[in-house]
Amino acid sequence: MCADVARAFMLGYLLVSDVCEHGGNLQAATERFGLPAGGWQDLSTGISPWGYPVSQVPSHVWQHLPIDRIPLMNAAQNVYGVSAECIFPVPGTQAAIAAVPRFLPAARVALPSCGYHEHQYHWTNTGHTPVFYSTADELLQLAKNGAVDHVVVINPNNPTGQRICRADLQKVYQSIAGVLLVDEAFMDFQPEHTMAAFVAQQPRLVVLRSVGKFFGLAGIRVGFVLSCHAQIKNIKHLFEPWGVSGPAMWVAEQALSDRDWQQAQRQRIDNTFQSLTTLLQAFTERLPTKITLSGAGLFISLAGHEALLHALHNALAARGIYTRWGYQCRRSATAYLRFGLPDDDNVRLQSALHAIQQEWKL
Q1: Residues 20 and 44 sit within 8 Å (Cβ to Cβ)
Q2: Does residue 257 sit in helix, strand or coil?
Q3: What is the dihedral of CA 106, 112, 117, 120, to 10 degrees?
Q4: Quick one: pLDDT at residue 113?
Q5: How far, in Å, CA of 319 to CA of 357, rounded?
Q6: Cα 96 to Cα 94: distance, rounded to the nearest angstrom
Q7: Do 23 and 317 meet the contact criterion of CB atoms below 8 Å apart?
Q8: Reported confidence tier of residue 111, pLDDT bands at 50, 70, 90
Q9: Which of 51, 81, 171, 222 lies at a CB distance of 3.0 to 4.6 Å from 211, suitable for a disulfide?
Q10: Are 308 and 289 contacting, i.e. CB atoms less than 8 angstroms apart?
Q11: pLDDT value at residue 250
């Protein structure tokens, strides 16, 4: 390992507490590095940089209470293929992640050893006992052995990009007595893999969908719980009567109804994902330790040596590009550095990586 890269490793250890542990956001990065001359390019979120073009919200939507949900429910029903009585709008899927465990008796729940931490937090905080799995095979074995009662699957997973196929999810469902919760917040890019179509026939199945990520509309805080489970359906009482605002419902209905825009968005995401993959592969191949790339349309994650990824995170932040470092997984020493999709054809990131390559003498 050359001295320059070794030094970069050390810098990663020294600086990561300043940037990552104190909030892990643009404010913390600004406090550490100062505000970049060109402003931050925020690649940390995994939210599409191309938001649905929202037209002017009619005045009556602002003036009236959000009583009429029929347009939104019709749009959601058409997109997800689930009857309206099994669709519940919520103020973002985060609200659903917090709510679902509360409606189920405390039991053993299978959770991904690497994934969005809020699932683990809310299941354990409501008295459930976590049992962690890393692969689809491990999960199937836990389910078949009766080692778990409920199962949580993030599909595709954030940050690993892992997707468990529907056939395996069906086997898991048939092997457990409790709920199979599938978080599909990143599924809109490849909707053909959704489990939503099975909700009506499988009452212990719960699917979460988001309007924030694919549509680039995180600020409206709209998501959906898809389930015919008798207890899960009580979630609606947590958010009635005005859990989702009228303007948010109106915007979500417009976005969900616009199939032409959705198709164009998938193509735009796919093109950028492929070009970003090529750029990151070319850079990581020069590094002295193995780095693995994985992703799920709206993001690409680098997995590998913790200190090296610390150093790369900080080197990019010093050049005004903010990535998401972390996601240390149970039973693994692997760290992740996640890149969302740039909206400038990778111009700024390519320049930064080239400069880092020269600085580290790669």
Answers
A1: no
A2: helix
A3: 10
A4: 94
A5: 13
A6: 5
A7: no
A8: very high
A9: 222
A10: yes
A11: 97
CB 249 within 8 A of CB 217: no
Alpha helices in 68-127 (DSSP H): 70-80, 93-99, 117-125
Question: Is 8's pLDDT higher than 90?
Answer: no
Q: Domain-by-domain residue ranges, the chain?
A: 3-50+261-359, 59-257
Other Cβ atoms within 10 Å of 309 Cβ, number:
26
Residue 38 — pLDDT band, cuts 50, 70, 90? confident
Question: To which residue do tokens 């390019």 refer?
Answer: 41
**Structure token pair of residue 133:** 């799995």
Establish how many alpha carbons lie within 13 A of residue 125's alpha carbon, considering only the half-sphere containing its beta carbon: 11
Helix (H) or strand (E) holding 210: strand 205-210
Residues in the chain: 362
pLDDT digits (tens, 9 = 90+) for 172-221: 999 999 999 999 999 999 999 999 999 999 999 999 999 999 999 999 99
- Report the chain's terminal Cα–Cα distance, integer Å: 10
Q: Which residues pair with 300 in a beta bridge?
A: 295, 339
Closest C-alpha to 48, from 192, 276, 211, 277:
211
Tell me the CATH number of domain 59-257, given options 3.40.640.10, 3.60.15.10, 3.30.720.120, 3.40.50.300. 3.40.640.10
Check residue 3 and give its pLDDT: 45
Rounded to whole angstroms, the Cα distance separating 60 from 38 reads 40
Between these two residues, 237 and 256, which has the higher pLDDT value? 256
Alpha carbons 38 and 166: distance in angstroms, whole number: 44
Please, which residues bridge with residue 87 across strands?
226
The confidence score (pLDDT) of residue 329 equals 73
Q: How far apart are CA 256 and CA 262, in angstroms?
A: 8
Between helix 3-16 and helix 306-317 the angle, nearest 10°, is: 80
The answer to whether the predicted template modeling score (pTM) of the entire model surpasses 0.85 is: yes
User: Is there a common fold for 3-50+261-359 and 59-257?
Assistant: no
Query: Yes or no: is domain 3-50+261-359 CATH 3.40.50.300?
Result: no
pLDDT in tens, 294-326: 999 999 999 998 999 999 999 999 999 999 988
